[in-house]
Design a protein that fits this description.
The complex is a heterodimer of chains A (640) and B (460). Chain A has 20 helices and 22 strands. In chain A, the strands form five sheets. In chain A, strands 1, 2, 6, 7, 8, 9 and 20 form a seven-stranded mixed sheet that branches. Chain A has a six-stranded antiparallel sheet with strand order 14-15-16-17-13-18, with no helix packed on it. A four-stranded antiparallel sheet of chain A has the order 11-10-19-12. Chain B is an alpha/beta fold. Chain B has helices at 30-37, 105-117, 127-134, 140-151, 155-165, 168-197, 202-231, 245-253, 296-311, 327-336, 373-385, 396-416, 422-440, 448-453, and strands spanning 8-11, 18-26, 38-44, 51-55, 65-72, 75-85, 96-103, 121-122, 233-239, 271-277, 280-286, 314-320, 342-346, 363-364. In chain B, helix 4 runs antiparallel to helix 5 (155-165), helix 7 runs antiparallel to helix 12 and helix 12 runs antiparallel to helix 13 (422-440). Chain B is flat. The chains are: A alpha+beta (640), B alpha/beta (460).
């Protein structure tokens, strides 16, 4: 029997990050996958990023993950989204070549010495009491491991629906898995049926692109990864096309809605509220006359185009009819129809913030199996599960990501504290301290953590330290340089309002139209002095300038949010002892008690976030937790 | 162990001489302690010498009063009533008892130390109420109300504390909290879903937020009323020497607190007393008579009078009714530098002098006979009640949180008035929500127990 520190089941976007993180941290890791040619497969929208998802992708990258690096090599289109919505919302979105992206992921996995890829089906997880000790493969082989990470996506009892036709499959072209659900039920994990859907694919040469709106690629928007100076040079990039649904589209869908797998009641699974099918959109927003539809090219030199905004489980002929009702698509050919897939998800409120199961030590669950949707959500969980699987195997303390420091933390805290009612998609608004959780400072928030746990490479770390040094230097200079009324002529000549009192460079940078370079110019002209020369590459300089500009322009907002954060951090640090006996606390109401016992929160702050918990019960809990801590202290002193 | 498992003891009456004092013991060992310190007295009539025998109680019914002896070290310390309370039906929610004894501080100390000898721990201030809270008997604002009730000296203070105990503040602030949450949700929805639901109507959002600010400001203006109720309306009684300021103080106090003589300038220092007038607390300050003086002590007294005037909510200007309003009185009023003073003509029991100048608007009273004093009560009532019949509920803790909430909301409204993105207004709306939640406890706050329970002054 082969022995590993960690075994990862699955090689989707969660499995890749889990396996790579564990192996890069020095854990001997095996990744078992049904098909090696499906590593990093993109069965749905072949894009990375977008609102809040871009934040997750950048955070995975900042920790030393793979997603950002690979997309920079494999993208066919990139642009900034959320411009005009503020610094917290702004991020990147890229389209991947769906052929190249998986191939590069396979290469990345092959290149890590401690990682072994195994093409096989897992029959079940092996346990010893309440502890996972490995996996058994369908062919009878057993693999022993300290930690087991399940990233099974939509494979558990997957059923695909195409109109009235349904068949057992996890997605187009892949068989479903039955055995692992039984294992989850056996150890007491609650599962539910969720549903997700994808859109039809259409032929590029059958689209009248001349009649469509165009979303241009902004090559300078990238790169995704903090380690790159730019996205990789490609011979050409693609634009993205836009059309809209109209009265006719809506009529066709409405008249055929009974044929849809979801509305025809053939699907019991709950679909994603924030990523609705076109049927959902038309039923739920009957007043809306038109919905935007984006056409995204899926691969270099290929025909396949993804119809973003049109996921559907209607029959193929209806899909073709409504596609052809739209401007520019009158003669379109459908390459493959859209379909819905139903699968088993495991209740994430039975997980700890490390993504380890509360019911089975050493078993980690990550990705879509936890009830999320999206590659970025999966990758974020994957890297956390991989990190903690490795830490466990190596006997190191676990790593928890607090929600005030990353979207990764927000995602996991939401999952384990609130559970999910429908496929969870990350949204900007889910983070209450999002002005700090910007996509541009993900490295400041997470790269030091990644370095500490051995996941960040020397090259990434040196680059980060250089950037940090530059930001500090620029900030110090901005605070030291000052403009006075004597400089007013100069300011006016540059179209700037005059200053009334002595104004530091930092204060001048707060003006909406002033960039860091402008302050440098003005300081040179006024004789106030220049900042130390930039010695780094242009990309790092630009990133550092951006940091000080954001610090200045949103200074007041950042300070006020910091004050809110401080209070929250104190509550996050008030840990509830493992195995705390809630039933001994008499002052807590029955409804809160039931929720505390079910979720078993690890901090008072987490307890306060459980939906439906009464505020006054939290105050009672604070009192009892402090007493428990006081008691523990006395006992430990007595033991000495 | 200092924890929920131990038994605590403290007197729950004040630390002064009184006919009766009450001691409370709460915790798992309390009933055992009660059986050890309490005995029934049996009078034994003996031929030789009169002798008292004691019998330990065999069964004691909770919520029944038993009369007997309090015994420590086989010696009777005192006698009193014992009442046991069972778990879940006591003030703290734990098994407990209350024991009355004579109100000598020495006896109380002796009994408490006897109980400590039996395994109880002296309770920290507020600890009984903290336990009541921890055991779910009361909520946070109610716990605060307990303190106010204990300290309430007047009817109005008691009424306010009762409203607090009934959770009225939590309701008021809860409504505020809900409105802020609604504005935040509206703004936040457009951050992620502007495509589906359109952009935020920033104009109307801004109006709604400014309305909230105005409502908080109105609540805050009630804070002065709340402070007056808690601390009393501060009134400085001023006037020329010998117009009867000290007599008025004594008359309103119903006691000879201030020394009254016929010699002008008797009061050299300011004297402060709290009285209940029309059921409201009033802190009266008797000041040295205001006149030019060559004597140093009296001059110092006059300076102190001016300080009292500056810190007072109200100034009552006393003058002699028989003499009427004199230029000297006019000079005193002018020297006060206050916009308004209440004019009180004293000694109306004496006959008017010939050249008496009538001063319209003055209340005519007699400190000596009590005639006309009810006009002062009416005046106090109108001061407290003119701000509307609503009893203001907030205290210092609430005031700070509400002010901070209003600040956040003002920032949010300001942001919406510029071309900055809506998401930045969310920063401050979230701050407002988090801050207002501290009052109700919805925002978990580690210090909240500290802030509430440590302010108790006695064992209660």
């Amino acid at each position: 029997m082969s022995r590993y520190d960690a075994v990862v089941i699955g090689s989707g976007h969660a499995g890749i990050e889990a396996a790579l993180a564990a192996a890069r941290m020095g854990a001997k890791t095996a990744c078992v996958t049904l098909r090696l040619d499906r590593i990093g497969h993109m069965p749905c929208n072949c894009s990375i990023g977008g609102p809040a998802k871009g934040h997750l992708a950048r955070e995975v990258d900042a920790l030393g993950g793979q997603m950002g690096v690979t997309i920079d090599h494999a993208l066919t289109h990139i642009r900034t989204v959320g411009t005009g919505k503020g610094p917290a919302v702004r991020t990147l979105r890229a389209h991947a070549c769906k052929v190249l992206y998986p191939r590069l992921m396979r290469q990345a996995m092959d290149s890590v010495p401690d990682l072994t890829l195994i093409e096989a089906a897992v029959q079940t997880v092996l346990t010893d009491g309440d502890r996972a000790v490995g996996v058994r493969l369908e062919d009878g082989r057993e693999i022993a491991a300290h930690s087991v990470v399940m990233t099974t996506g939509t494979f558990l009892n997957g059923v695909c629906h195409e109109g009235a036709r349904k068949k057992r499959a996890a997605r187009f072209g892949d068989d479903a898995v039955a055995g692992l659900s039984a294992f989850l039920w056996d150890i007491g994990i609650r599962t539910r049926r969720f549903k997700t859907g994808t859109t039809p694919r259409i032929g590029l040469s059958s689209i009248d692109t001349g009649r469509l709106g165009i979303q241009s690629c902004e090559k300078s928007a990238g790169p995704f990864s903090f380690v790159h100076d730019a996205v990789m040079p490609q011979s050409r990039m693609y634009d993205c096309f836009q059309t809209r649904t109209n009265d006719e589209t809506h009529r066709i869908i409405r008249e055929n809605i009974h044929l849809s797998a979801v509305y025809g009641k053939r699907i019991e699974g709950v679909g994603p509220r924030f990523c609705p099918s076109i049927e959902d959109k038309i039923v739920r927003f009957p007043d809306k006359e038109s919905h935007p539809v984006f056409l995204e090219i899926e691969e270099w030199d290929g025909e396949s185009v993804y119809v973003q905004g049109m996921s559907t489980s209607l029959p193929a002929d209806v899909q073709l009819a409504f596609l052809r009702s739209m401007r520019g698509l009158e003669d379109v050919e459908m390459i493959r129809q859209g379909y819905a897939v139903e699968y088993d998800m495991a209740d994430p409120s039975q997980l700890r913030p490390t993504l380890e199961s509360k019911l089975c030590e050493g078993l980690f669950l990550a990705g879509q199996v936890n009830g999320t949707s999206g590659y970025e959500e999966a990758a974020a969980q994957g890297i956390v599960a991989g990190i903690n699987a490795a830490r466990r195997a190596q006997g190191q303390p676990e790593v928890v990501f607090p929600r005030d420091n990353s979207y990764i933390g927000v995602l996991i805290d939401d999952l384990v504290t609130k559970g999910v009612d429908d496929p969870y998609r990350m949204l900007t608004g889910r983070s209450e301290y999002r002005l700090f959780l910007r996509h541009d400072n993900a490295d400041f928030r997470l790269t030091p953590i990644g370095r500490e746990i051995g996941l960040v490479s020397d090259a990434r770390w040196e680059r980060f330290e250089e950037k940090r040094r530059m930001v500090e230097m620029k900030r110090t200079w901005l605070d030291s340089v000052a403009f006075s009324v004597r400089d007013n002529d100069l300011l006016i000549s540059r179209g700037q309002p005059q200053v009334k009192t002595k104004t530091t460079g930092f204060d001048l940078l707060k003006r909406p139209d002033v960039r860091f370079a402008d302050v440098v110019e003005l300081a040179k002209e006024s004789g106030a002095g220049a900042p130390p020369e930039d010695v780094s590459g242009a990309r790092l300089v630009r990133e550092a300038d951006e940091q000080v500009e954001i610090q200045a322009k949103f200074d007041g907002f950042l300070k006020r949010q910091e004050a809110q954060l401080e209070q929250q951090r104190r509550m996050e640090s008030l840990a509830i002892p493992r195995g705390f006996d809630y039933s001994s606390v008499r002052g807590i109401s029955h409804e809160s008690l039931e929720k505390f016992q079910r979720v078993r929160p690890e901090t008072v702050a987490q307890a306060a976030r459980i939906p439906g918990v009464r505020p006054t019960d939290i105050a009672v809990l604070i009192g009892h937790v402090r007493r428990a801590h006081a008691g523990n202290r006395e006992r430990s002193i007595a033991a000495r | 162990m200092d924890g929920p498992g131990d038994t605590i003891v403290a007197p729950i009456t004040g630390p002064f001489r009184a006919p009766v004092a009450l001691i409370r013991v709460s915790g798992p060992d309390s009933w055992d302690i009660a059986r050890k310190v309490f005995s029934f007295r049996l009078s034994v009539f003996s031929e030789s010498e009169p002798k008292t025998e004691y019998r330990k109680p065999r069964t004691l019914e909770p919520r029944h009063a038993y009369y007997g002896a309090i015994i420590a070290d086989n010696e009777e310390i005192d006698e009193g009533f014992l009442i046991l309370f069972e778990e879940g039906r006591s003030y703290t929610g734990e098994a407990s008892f209350e024991l009355s004894c004579h109100g000598s501080p020495a006896i109380v100390r002796q009994i408490v130390s006897a109980m400590v000898g039996l395994g109880a721990r002296p309770a920290r201030p507020g600890e009984f109420t903290e336990r009541a809270f921890m055991n779910g008997r009361i909520d946070l604002t109610q716990a605060e109300a307990v303190r106010e009730t204990v300290e309430a000296a007047t009817q109005a203070q008691q009424r306010r504390a009762r409203l607090l105990r009934q959770g009225r503040l939590a309701q008021q602030v809860g409504a505020l909290e809900e409105r802020i949450a609604r504005e935040l949700a509206r703004a936040e929805a457009t951050v992620d879903f502007s495509e589906e639901i359109g952009e935020l109507d920033r104009e109307s959002a801004r109006d709604a937020i400014l309305t909230l600010v105005a409502d908080i400001e109105r609540t805050l203006s009630g804070y002065r009323g709340a402070r007056l109720l808690r601390e009393g309306l501060r009134v400085a009684i001023v006037g020329r020497p010998n117009v009867g300021k000290s007599s008025l103080l004594n008359a309103l106090l119903g006691a000879d607190r201030a020394i009254v003589t016929e010699t002008p300038g008797t009061t050299r220092d300011t004297i402060e007393e709290t009285v209940s007038m029309a059921g409201y607390p009033v802190v009266l300050t008797d000041t040295a008579g205001l006149r030019e003086s060559t004597e140093q002590v009296e001059r110092l007294g006059v300076e102190r009078s001016m300080t009292a005037v500056e810190t007072a909510d109200e100034v009552w200007m006393l003058f002699e009714d028989p003499a009427g309003w004199t230029p000297e009185d006019e000079a005193v009023v002018a020297s006060l530098g206050r916009e308004s003073t209440l004019l009180v003509a004293n000694k109306r029991d004496l006959p008017s002098q010939r050249k008496r100048v009538e001063r319209p608007g003055a209340l005519r009273v007699s400190a000596l006979t009590g005639e006309g004093l009810e006009q002062l009560e009416d005046h106090i009532r109108s001061v407290f009640e003119c701000g509307g019949a609503e009893i203001p509920l907030i205290n210092e803790r609430h005031k700070e949180d509400l002010e901070e909430t209003a600040d956040y909301l003002r920032h949010a409204a300001e942001t919406l008035g510029t071309d900055l993105p809506t998401d930045l207004a969310c920063v401050d709306l979230h701050g407002a929500l988090q801050t207002v939640g501290r009052i109700t406890g919805r925002t978990a706050d580690e210090d909240i127990l500290e802030r509430i329970f440590r302010e108790f002054c006695i064992g209660k």
